[in-house]
């Protein structure tokens, strides 16, 4: 066994309280190097009577490592533990003070989880595990009230530019809530809706006023009420990293320079605050001079923004916030943000926009979830033919091991957004590949999200093309694709195993883009078979029971002499299940 590959620390994602009575332990070994791993556990004050040896399961693998996990329910909420690794006739132990070739005497030098304090347990909103999100850019979804259209509004369906107005508004969303209910949506995420000089509203002027081109504050309250009446949760976009240059406090800085009482609200490097040769003399989002960056360490700024967060939670019974450019704001701010939001609504869902490994924000003191762009990139890469099954399984294994289990259950999984090309476009306009990606989305752990219009076949490259107006002419919609989304959404909503069950690859081989994976809980077992090639394929896997059925047709599917053989069309799939 390669000792250098063995890794564990008694904190973060490696040892954490999953609930008030359960501790999750994880440990890492070199890939295919260890046959068995067990956790030797007990209470340090009563080791003999509480000792339990728990066989750990191989939860995931990546290119270099295997990851093992176990759930432990300590008798007294305390836990001392070590790990035993076995390969052939060799066994070694790892504990807090190093490796041992012989069983160490309890409990000196053991790892410790000192006590499960319920107040420290990372709790995520239970409803987010059940949620099917739909992302809407209000300006591009539907024009329900032409009287509030901005000057220069173009014909619905025209080609968008980065300054095009189509006239979408909150009334348009209200007019189409039954459409969302029909497909199975039970949560929506709205991109910014507050007063702003742009169509996208990511440069806010007034954080407590709905932009008049979208409607009024009362319209927003009515929209949320109508959504709640139909069983739909609503989260809004919080743009707290930066504001508009027209934001009154920044205008005061432009006017009065260093003498402005708001000078410390922003990161002004030199006065006057201006843009020269494309570079602002103050910090901004990117290098956009029209989006000055807030100094969120300033107590006045912090209080101003926290008041905004609390205001909308209370004013309209908001269900949560999506946090724009979240990784560029200090952690102190986000800790206070969570406290304020959760006090206003303990069930609020907090989703950060972070495009890379986000563990620092997902330890229970800041966000519940993040927009899982690494997931989207790997899924699209695989189903576009960019990797084999082995590499894809490694990628997914690495992502699963990034975060604690409670985060994995509500991580915000999408396949495209307003900041990426459309899903169908990313998959070379091949609807068969798109369907495979959608099946994976809805049979994988986490909280799935659809970008408006994907379900009826909207295409588009990067911004502005991905931000087309929604197509409401049924004759121009792909209704077969719509029905497919509806089918997969209903399947996921019907079975907890597809939302919270264990995930594992059964087949993921080198030089073969076909995969088989499973989702299971204590009631139902799913296997998902995918032919990610342009040729017909028959996939095989050992199965020793004959009670399998097709999840979409309910047709019985039996193995032959202990081997299941599933024939699939090019880019075809099949979902099997059995009751346990």
TrEMBL record:
SMART domains in the record: Aamy
Domain Glycosyl hydrolase family 13 catalytic, chain residue ranges per copy: 135-492
Annotated SUPFAM superfamilies: (Trans)glycosidases, E set domains, Glycosyl hydrolase domain
Molecular functions per Gene Ontology: hydrolase activity, acting on glycosyl bonds
Gene3D superfamilies given in the database record: Glycosidases, Golgi alpha-mannosidase II, Immunoglobulins, Oligo-1,6-glucosidase, Domain 2
Alphabetically ordered keywords of this record: Glycosidase, Hydrolase
Entry superkingdom: Bacteria
Sequence similarity: Belongs to the glycosyl hydrolase 13 family.
Name of the molecule in the record: Glycosidase
Record organism: Paenibacillus sediminis
